[in-house]
Amino acid sequence: MPNDRLIRSVISASGISQIRCECGRWADHAVEEFLNMLGQDPDSLLRKNWMEGHVLISAFFMPSAPAVAKIMMAALAGEHDTLRREILLDSILGLSDSDSPEYLQECQSIISRGVWIFIEEASSGRSRACASYAFEILQCLEESEWVQMLQNDYSDDIPMRS
């Protein structure tokens, strides 16, 4: 990982190793497995929802969700190829909305600190998939001013759902 030292620091500071995962292990195992797959075999992450049963069940966040949001944001801060960036943005999108209010506000607060990363990604023209994920994250965060700007000025670059 390009910013492995930062990610390791955030993992340590997040306290995730002291949170029980839904599978019964310590919650840091899910993040460690995700980061290993992201580094070695990102294609495998496209075929499964790595958070299911660990960070969330259906669309309900588990106690580790805020810590995972911090770690995903730290990972996104590094330079990645398009596939890895797409996977990180998809994971962050999964932490941007929930069917249950528990942990949602905390996750959104963490993710909203990166609003300019999402605006830049959505407007960059590098990847339509990444732009779409970034745009959807902004919608989940209810960043209506920036969503409107992107709709007005970048609609050709962002595949938007109606």
Beta-strand proportion: under 5%
Strand order of the largest sheet: 1-2
Contiguous uncertain segments of 5+ residues: none
Helix content: 55-70%
Distance between the termini: 36 Å
Q: Helical element count? A: 9
Based on secondary structure, the structural category is mainly alpha
Largest sheet: 2 strands, antiparallel
Per-chain topology:
Layout: H1 4-14, H2 28-40, H3 42-46, E1 56-57, E2 60-61, H4 65-76, H5 82-94, H6 104-112, H7 115-123, H8 128-140, H9 144-153
Antiparallel strand pairs: 1-2
List keywords for this structure.
mainly alpha, single chain, 2 domains, 2% strand, 2 strands, 162 residues
Describe this structure in words.
The protein has 162 residues and is an all-alpha fold. The chain is 59% helix and 2% strand. The protein has a two-stranded antiparallel ribbon with strand order 1-2. Helix 4 packs antiparallel against helix 5 (82-94). The mean pLDDT is 91.
Brief digest:
This protein is an all-alpha fold and 162 residues long.
